[in-house]
Specification:
It is a single chain. Helix content is about 50%, strand content about 15%. The protein is of the alpha/beta class. It is globular, with a radius of gyration of 19 Å. The relative contact order is 0.13. It folds into 2 domains: about 5-120 and about 160-310, Divalent-metal-dependent TIM barrel enzymes (TIM Barrel); about 120-155. Helix 1 (about 5-10) crosses helix 12 (about 290-310), helix 4 packs parallel to helix 7 (about 155-175) and helix 5 runs antiparallel to helix 6.
Length: about 300
């Protein structure tokens, strides 16, 4: 299947090729040229951060006017949505409002929200160290993990209350601007929301189409590698509310933002079919990843998934 036919097949199924601008924004001075590079690599949409450099924004607007690319999602700044301090939570809401305004102006239909880290002592890095050293499920590992789970669950009710408080502030504006809020899945058990908290929030806001999930494959795989969840089962549980997905590979046990297929850490063949047709798929990769390898992975992606999308 040719590139144009593949792109048309994916778009007809509601799937655009997306790439996060963070991959090459650091080395670009012209947003139009940045967008052209993405287009030449076969990507039709972009994820941009709310703090994208003004110089890049000017050129990127020209690229949009010329139809070179579309902005599919804006990533809001900050991760203080469940912070202990009320002022930190208010600051997070202000940043989210900036992203909503930007999304409306740029024609992006989604904003990614990171609810943030709890104040508890972080133990996920310790679990990853033990796993790397071959101690996965050993006595020390189990002790650290059990302590982490108990401490984290004790905070759940408070964190859910804070999350609902900030979301209640944002959802009316999201509806007014016709921009959806997508909660990012975290990569540390200390972050919010956990998978059970995420399901609780989705149930609480079951009647609004303006709140959903941004599925970070690298983050979720990191938790799966540590035995906190099964990746496919977790995705199935919330799949109807998934608005978009960060596509990336993971090296054992928890380093993400690798090019798809490069590490063998994520079972894309199992996960991609679970995404709803309208979910935007954004390749989110570390800036160190080479263009030639990204393009090679994209061709492999076409071979593996385009035929399935064509039916």
């Amino acid at each position: 299947m040719g590139e144009q036919q593949c792109a048309e097949t994916l778009m007809s199924a509601g799937r655009g090729w997306g790439i996060a601008a963070a991959w090459n924004a650091h080395r670009c001075t012209d947003g139009r040229l940045m967008a052209m590079e993405h287009q030449l690599m076969g990507f039709s949409q972009m994820e941009i951060r709310a703090d994208l450099a003004p110089g890049l924004q000017e050129g990127l607007r020209r690229a949009l006017e010329q139809g070179l690319i579309e902005i599919g999602v804006i990533r809001a700044l900050g991760g203080g949505g469940v912070s202990e301090g009320a002022e930190e939570r208010r600051a997070w809401v202000r940043q989210a409002r900036v992203a909503l305004e930007m999304a409306e102006a740029w024609g992006a239909g989604r904003v990614i929200l990171n609810l943030g880290m709890t104040s508890m002592r972080a133990s996920t890095p310790e679990l990853e160290r033990l796993a790397w050293e071959g101690g996965l499920h050993g006595r020390s590992y189990v002790k650290v993990k059990l302590d982490l789970v108990q401490r984290r669950l004790a905070l759940s009710a408070t964190l859910l209350e804070r999350a609902r408080e900030v979301l209640d502030e944002l959802l009316p504006e999201a509806k007014r601007r016709r921009v959806k809020l997508a909660l990012e899945t975290p990569g540390c058990f200390e972050e919010a929301p956990t998978m059970s908290e995420l399901q609780t929030l989705l149930e609480h806001y079951a009647d609004t189409p303006w709140l959903g999930v941004w599925w970070e494959m690298g983050n979720v795989q990191r938790l799966a590698n540590l035995g906190f969840l099964d990746h496919a089962e977790a995705l199935r549980a919330v799949a109807p509310r998934v608005m978009g997905c960060a596509v990336q590979d993971v090296s054992w046990p928890g380093k993400g933002q690798w090019i798809p297929f490069s590490q063998g850490g994520v079972d894309f063949a199992q996960l991609i079919p679970l995404l709803p047709p309208e979910a935007l798929q954004v390749w989110r990769m570390d800036p160190s990843q080479r263009r030639a390898r990204i393009e090679a992975a994209r061709r492999q992606w076409e071979e593996q998934f385009c035929a399935a999308a064509a039916g």
